[in-house]
Amino acid sequence: MGGPGDPPEGTPEGAPGGGEDEYRSVVFDESFVRAARLQESSARERMSDHAPAVRRRPPLRRGLSRQAIILVLLIAVAFGTAIYMGVRHPYQKPVAQPTEPLRMTVIPLSPQSDVPGAVDPEKLFESSPAAQFRVGADGVTLPAFRRTAHFSDSQVGTALTTAKDYLVKSALDPDVLTGGAVRSVRVLLNPRQLDQFDQSFDHPAPDGRHAPTGWLIRFDPTRAELADHKIRVQGTLEATETDSDTLEVTADHTLVYALKPTGSDDRAKASLFTVRRELQFRFDRDDLRMHQTQLMAASVQAGPLSCSEDAANHLRPLLAGQTAKSGGPAGTDPYATDGATALCGSLAQSAQPKV
Question: Where are the alpha helices (DSSP H) in 91-232?
């Protein structure tokens, strides 16, 4: 860095340096003179009246280079384009499609004779078709799965796991089975289905839309309770892609419960109650992210039940030694638009334990 007497552009070429030039402090080159902020007036100017001996020179104007100007213009154009595209984006966010209401069918299965029973529930299971079924959630097994065209391995796995969680909470939770809590099932549903779910429990009806037993399994707590908490389960889960934004899971399970009269002691005979349950779940990408599902269809066959009793709100099992009441469900007007045709089936003898 130059000293106080150095010219702004450095020592002129060819000029002696260091302390060798004894006149260096008083000799100024042309660049030094041009850089000076004060300029002495010429002799002609000083002859005029009131002319100052010196005047201040205007500052040097340093303009932007051409490259800098072009860069600024490009940034301005890019910024303006981004704002325009943000305001008038050609691709609108897709509108969420309304969720279809759950379609449900609950079919009572009436026994053809007295319901068999035994004090030891294990003997009932061992002598029934459920002898080789697994116990509880272990019976709801996940299949081998792989990615689809538009969903990853983890997304398919999430759909299957959420469906399993729904099955476990809605058919194996003792609090739910006894007609109590429903929140553990409710939180797994897409929020757009909650109105139908809540209405089903507030105002149950056998109309194919608002039967609590279409959403979950629950027994009339005044009639029956679990004689054994080891519920036997066997079935399948299958996931398929229906379009680029939707996965569907189909569940088909048979569940067998050991029941006894409510409030009875250990000497009371137990009986088996069988439920065949087919459910269809739907998942969009938000459902997968939130660990929720849309329950689209439910088909339930359950027995032993009496066809003359309503199975929409609670299942009212026939217990050991009981027989089905005569008569069937009340007739349904086929011209009415607000009711479903009543259905009832017979429980095969082969489905009962051999005791």
Answer: 121-126, 153-171, 174-177, 183-186, 194-202, 212-215
Q: What separation, in Å, do the N-terminal and C-terminal C-alpha atoms of the chain show?
A: 110
Whether pLDDT at 15 is above 60:
no
Q: Which amino acid is at 20?
A: E
The string of pLDDT tens digits covering residues 95-136 is: 455 678 999 999 999 998 999 999 999 999 999 999 999 999
Tokens of 9: 């552009």
- CA angle at 120 for the pair 118 and 122, rounded to the nearest 5°: 110
Q: CB neighbours of 188 closer than 8 A, spacing ≥ 6?
A: 162, 165, 166, 169, 291, 292, 293
Within its chain, how far is the Cα of 292 from the centroid?
Answer: 5
Least confident of 23-27, 81-85, 350-354: 23-27
pLDDT digit string (tens) for 238-262? 999 999 999 999 999 999 999 999 9
Contacts of 316 (CB under 8 A, 6+ apart): 219, 220, 223, 224, 305, 306, 309
Q: Distance between CA atoms of 242 and 221, rounded to whole angstroms?
A: 40
DSSP state of 137: G
Q: Among 96, 239, 97, 223, which Cα is nearest to 158's?
A: 239
Mean pLDDT of 276-294: 97
**Coil/strand/helix, residue 23:** coil
Q: Which two tokens stand for residue 114?
A: 């007295």
